[in-house]
Design a protein that fits this description.
three-stranded parallel beta sheet; 2 helices
Length: 66
């Protein structure tokens, strides 16, 4: 199976990060890939990390890096 990684760089994106991740997850062709989503929190001063951590609970393919 093919592997693919999505890297999202996020700075103060608490309002948009969930939609960004959902957009990736809603791609029907992902079933053909062994995929992971890596979110890099680039020093956000808002709740970006908390929002991503809530999404991670539902999907082990998502990783948060601070």
């Amino acid at each position: 199976m093919k592997e693919i990684s999505f890297v999202i760089i996020a700075y103060n994106e608490q309002r948009t990060i969930t939609n960004c991740i959902r957009s990736i997850l809603n791609q029907g062709e992902l079933t053909n890939y062994d995929y992971k989503i890596i979110v890099v929190n680039d020093g956000s001063k808002d709740e970006t990390s908390s929002v991503v951590e809530n999404v991670i609970k539902n999907n082990p393919r998502i990783q948060l890096i601070h």
